[in-house]
Amino acid sequence: MTRIRCITEMGMGVDVHGRDATKAARRAVSDAIRHSSLGFFRMLGKTPHDMYVDVTIGVPDPAAVDVDAVAAELPYGTVTVTAVAGGLEIPAEGGGDAILIANAAVLVSLDDDSGAR
Questions:
Q1: What pLDDT sits at residue 117?
Q2: Cα separation of 107 and 33, whole Å?
Q3: Residue 60 region, left (φ>0) first, then alpha (ψ -120 to 50), else beta?
Q4: Taking the model in full, what pTM does it have?
Q5: Cα separation of 102 and 99, whole Å?
Q6: Domain 3-111, CATH homologous superfamily name and number
Q7: Distances (CA, A) of 38 to 2, 4, 46, 50, 68
Q8: Residue extents of the structural domains in the chain
Q9: Minimal CA–CA distance to 73: which of 47, 102, 100, 97?
Q10: Contact 41/50 with Cβ under 8 angstroms?
Q11: Please, what sign has the CA dihedral across residues 58, 59, 65, 70?
């Protein structure tokens, strides 16, 4: 199966208090897809369930991201979420807390049905 990338969306999410990487990551994915309505599937003889959705989340501590919770933000397709080092943590002036920023790249691909491997 050869996949053809059809859509690339980017988003940013923030947890202002609590350093919750999963919350920021979910917000980043929501930001990336919030303004999208994909209606081209019928033209290609596909459905939204035929999508492959690959999500990369950048946060300061990738191990702190619950990738299953982030994947649940996507309503369709076969979803894969990978957390990598990135994003930003801004310490509070008084210490003890921080603003955590996550970045998301959401890539949507379809099988080209050519049979090429």
A1: 47
A2: 10
A3: alpha
A4: 0.91
A5: 10
A6: Tubulin/FtsZ, C-terminal domain (3.30.1330.20)
A7: 21, 15, 12, 12, 23
A8: 3-111
A9: 102
A10: yes
A11: negative
pLDDT at 78 over 50: yes
Q: Write down the pLDDT at residue 41.
A: 85
Which of the four pLDDT bands, split at 50, 70 and 90, describes residue 115? low
33-65 tens-digit pLDDT: 998 888 888 888 999 999 999 999 999 999 999
pLDDT at 112: 87
Among candidates 4, 16, 21, which has minimal Cα distance to 87? 21
The letter for the amino acid at 28 is: A
- What is the residue type of 107? L
